[in-house]
Amino acid sequence: MEKRLFLLTSLLLLLMVILTVKQESTKDWTKYQEKYFTQQIAHLKAKLGYSKDPEGQKKIQQEIASYENRKPEIINLVLPNGNVERCKTCHIGIEEISDSHPSNTFGCAVCHGGNPLSLDKETAHSQMNGEGHPGSLDVVTLSCGGTGVDGVSCHSGNQETEKNEVDLVKTSIMSTKAGELSFIRIMLGIDKTKDVPDLVKGQSAFLFSNPLQGRPKEDVFQKDCLSQCHQSGGNIPTFVTQNDKTQSSTQNSTHDYAKGNGCEVCHVLTNPTHEYEGDDVTLEGITNGRGMTHRLTTEIPYMQCNQCHNQGTHDPLNMKFTVRADESKVIRDWKAGEITNSDREQDYYLPGEIFAQCEVSLDCIDCHTRQDVMGDNKLWTSQYDAVHIQCMDCHGTPEKFPQLKKIVNKQDIAFDEKITNSKFPSLELGDEILLSAKGEELPFLRYKENEWLQVSRVTGKTFRIPQVMGSNCQQDPKEQGADSCHKCHDQTH
């Protein structure tokens, strides 16, 4: 009996040793790579089933074979400065962040931080910038505003102010929330002017001490108004799928909002549920707060802006937000195909709102300039004052055409307006571009062959810009608000 017990104990100990050795030899990174290989094989086999081209089929079969024969291995990324990073050993399927930020030049740590030589998850991810969201404004100075591996300043520290987006965005009205704070304080009689005492550049209004100076609902204002901002780590309404129906998390308190993360909210496209859809298997199962892929873009469609805008109506006195009644209609799959003009009208505007046709035909960034959105180093406390574009910037006035600038220098800041859309015409020396009333260059608006043209930064589609001069338009150059134009040029959704 004792002999049998001894043998059983010995076998159990041996089994434990074998399992321990096996677990030690099967690192997480090997599992990730094997899962990625399997996933790619499945994708290729599906692609093979649709292929009718013999040469194409042969190429796909060769790719399948290469993945079937591939073994996990440590991937060392050697950067131009000699630094070595191993992030892609686990994140083997991750997408290139952008063509202008290639990983074989920039690496990963320059933006994300962390410990890029480690293959242990906890060690590798410790001290990451923004916990995986390097665009968050509280860490963006270390990431987007840092210095590249070649020693060149990125989006901060440049001689040209316009190139220091990291510094400028912290002064933008979306980041500071100064406009909201100023508006409420004037309504309550706290201030006589729009200027908010003691609010300084780089400080978000939601950090402002005692914004309503002890008045009722001050806590509600701080929590539900000033904190609800994608530029300051606030909350973005997301959509959840239940019983085959997609609904907004604003109507379902059991689901959290997605956290806004500064630069990423605009430049990393998301789907309505903020789920990752790419090939990095380590991100599978993360169902909230991620872009569709690990990819930056300057082609920002209006649906991205609608994450925060056009979601409903605000009652600033009672600190209440009402979700629009037709909200379910604006939920769409961005990859579903062509979006009609009717779709755009429905998505863009709340029921009963008035708009001009040009406003709905274009995307938001086709009118709003980079300094409109990312700030101009001034602490505006009014949305109207912060906007850089006016109707006459494109359409002129009864007495004059829009203001032009001829591009004669390759170092002109206009060339820094990076448009990744392949249909967008490249900017060349000799081109004539429009200037805003505040002197901002608008390279997406051009004068060519006696025509005033606008090229959409999202679709690449070209629009001819009708001019006020010589028309029957009764425009008053002093009245440049949208409401003035809507008196004649209006449609209603």
Written overview of the protein:
30% of the residues lie in helices and 10% in strands. The strands form 6 sheets. A 5-stranded antiparallel sheet has the order 10-11-12-13-14, with no helix packed on it. A two-stranded antiparallel ribbon has the order 1-2. α2 (28-50) runs antiparallel to α3 (54-69). The chain has 19 helices and 15 strands. Among the domains are: 173-366, no CATH class; 389-492, no CATH class. The chain has helices at 2-25, 28-50, 54-69, 87-90, 103-106, 109-112, 121-125, 165-169, 173-176, 178-187, 218-226, 263-267, 302-305, 341-348, 357-361, 370-374, 383-386, 391-395, 482-486; strands at residues 77-78, 84-85, 235-236, 239-242, 245-248, 258-259, 312-315, 320-323, 354-355, 404-406, 432-435, 441-448, 451-455, 462-464, 491-492. The longest helix is centred in the N-terminal third of the chain and has 24 residues, at 2-25. β7 (312-315) and β8 form a beta hairpin. The protein is of the alpha+beta class.
Quick structural gist:
The chain is α+β, with helices and mostly antiparallel strands and 493 residues long. The chain has 19 helices and 15 strands.
